[in-house]
Amino acid sequence: MSQVTVTLPDGSSRAVPAGTSIADVAAGISPRLAKAALAASVDDRLVDLSYPLERDARVRIVTAESPEALPLFRHSTAHLLAAAVTTLFPGVQCGIGPATDEGFFYDFVVPRPFVPEDLDAIEKKMKELAAQNLPYERQMWPRAEAEAFFAERGEPLKVQLIEEKTAGQPVVSCYTIKDRETFVDFCTGPHVPSTGKLKAFKLLTTSNAYWKGDAHNQPMQRIYGTAFVSEAELKDHLTRLEEAKKRDHRKLGRELGLFTVHPWAPGAAFWLAKGTTLYNTLANYMRDVLFPAGYVELKTPLVFNKALWETSGHWQHYRQNMFLIESEGEQMSMKPMNCPGHFLVFASEVRSYRDLPIRFHEQTPLHRNEASGVLTGLTRVRQFSQDDAHCFVTQDQIGEEVERLLRLVQRVYNDFGLPFTAKLGTRPATDFLGEKATWDHAEAQLLQALERAGMPYARNEGDGAFYGPKIDFDITDAIGRKWQCATIQLDYQMPERFDLKYVGADNTEHRPVVIHRAILGSFERFIAILIEHYAGAFPLWLAPVQATVLPIADRHLDYAGAVREQLAAAGLRAELDGRQEKIGYKIRQAQLQKVPYMLVVGDREVEERQVAVRSRSGGDLGSRPLDAFIAQAHDEIARKAQ
Fold first, then answer.
1. Which listed residue (390, 427, 525, 586) is catalytic?
2. Is 79 a catalytic site residue?
3. Which residue has the higher pLDDT, 439 or 593?
């Protein structure tokens, strides 16, 4: 019998008969490893324990401690969910059931929507199936047999998937739980060896869905759940979910009077007075940061002729996401991004190498035609504005400019008290534009900039955009969730498409490099993140209302009004609550509105020309002259105190 060589992560190797399964390899290493094994990485490809080794390979056994374990558990739990649903609801059609960053979901065609009682019954059935320790088995079926099998079962969606994803393949991969009668699904896997490995899972909610996310397709019901390797991790996650519900920006946005929505304007927020103040505070904060850094602000048109989008490539590749307009027989579109307009501005006059870097930023509204089914609060919208900028640089200026941008990102996120991590996205393996030497030079400059800035980073091999490498940033909010926000992207392709030029020191024309960058991303999404990060209790410098003046009785109204006027004159956002209500009620209302400071005025304060200060978090801080409070507030704002 022929032998194959298995190379292990420690560099050691062993010979085993060809066809030996991964499970047997693990058993040959140690009984303990065999018991802990879930799957394996074979030459960097994730496979089941039943996978037979037919040639020499690098093998790493995947256990619960491996980075691949969590998505493996979640994908397998999605199949467990589908098995429970098909058992409890005969005749159901199964769609797809992927693992996600937060858990998993599975889509079904059912006669009626799922209700909470259904979720309880389904989860109970899942636990029963898990307790039976049923095997997950991969079976390779002839393609025609698989299509006939699912067609006979009344699952045309599975037949469609097989036709689309396995064209030209003689056999397809299907997985059973126990046997075909219990559950079978068209799937490439891999999965854990048996249902008994799945102990920490929870079904969360249901929603309407459509096949392939298209509202013109088959309506479906989606069940969301989550799964973890251990019960402790699941418990921690569920606790965070409960906290996230309390912090939901849609709930707090309504309660705090920040924004509202209306079905006649789907995907667009109505910013109310306080929300508009918050929005403008963020916008002006970015201006204050950018102007000293050499940026100039532009306002470019909202509507462009299709010729612009044909030049940029968006008409060919992005048109389905654009709002199209026709005027006097001309096809046009609302702009979904600012960069093409900035390219036209750059090209509108002769540029010299002495002018570079040129830094344009813009905050005008953008529109993207997102599907109605994915619109969510402020995090997924159709109308938004970006903290958007484009830096035009020479090849030799890339490293220095990126280092400036890294320090800018660091400053901004520190001002908001948001920890962050950086990720370097390098050249994609295949679908990239330009020469490898250009990519290598660009990646080297990004690396040097990261190192000079002293910024830790992870490498995301192959994750660069097709037109250039990039650095992405994840921020972490107060309850541990990560959000991808800032990005710095090098672009060599758009300067070619738009024929951008500058005159070099040699008096000949050269092509600039464009650096696309955003720090906050869209204002809408960033505000949603801030609402949830701060749970609506914004620090003083961001709070829409920074102080509210609370007269105890009507006789204190004149003095309270004068206090509010002095606060406003000092640049503080202050309100007066002159309602004929008890002072305790007014304080509670101000607390519910999460106002940072409450200034109570009664007989003593009027007589001594002071204010009794209460803080949102610290309670009664005692009386003091108004000037002293204003000085303290200005100091707190200047420090961006959290």
1. 390
2. no
3. 593
Q: Is the pLDDT of residue 437 over 80?
A: yes
Residue position matching structure tokens 């409890």: 88
Catalytic residue among 516, 525, 533, 586: 516
Active-site residue among 191, 367, 368, 525? Answer: 368
546 carries an active-site annotation: no
Q: Angle at which helices 231-247 and 523-534 pack, to 10 degrees? A: 110
Q: Which domains does the chain have, with CATH numbers?
A: 3-62 (3.10.20.30), 69-232 (3.30.980.10), 289-300+335-530 (3.30.930.10), 547-638 (3.40.50.800)
Higher pLDDT, 212 or 538: 538
Which member of 387, 388, 472, 477 is catalytic? 388
Gap between the Cα atoms of 596 and 587, Å rounded:
11
Q: What distance in Å separates the CA atoms of residue 148 and residue 83, rounded to the nearest whole number? A: 20
For this structure, is 339 an active site residue?
yes
Mean pLDDT over 94-117 rounds to 93
For the question of residue 580 being annotated catalytic, the response is no
Q: Which residues contact 498 (CB under 8 A, 6 or more apart)?
A: 311, 312, 340, 343, 344, 346, 347
Among residues 386, 397, 493, 593, the one annotated as catalytic is 386
Per-residue burial over 493-520, b if 16 or more Cβ lie within 10 Å, else e, is bbbeebebbbeeeeeeebebbbbbbbbb
Residue 244 and residue 268: Cα distance in Å, rounded? 23
| Residue 249 annotated among the catalytic residues of the structure | no
pTM metric for this prediction: 0.81
Torsions phi, psi for 271 (to 5 deg): -80, 120
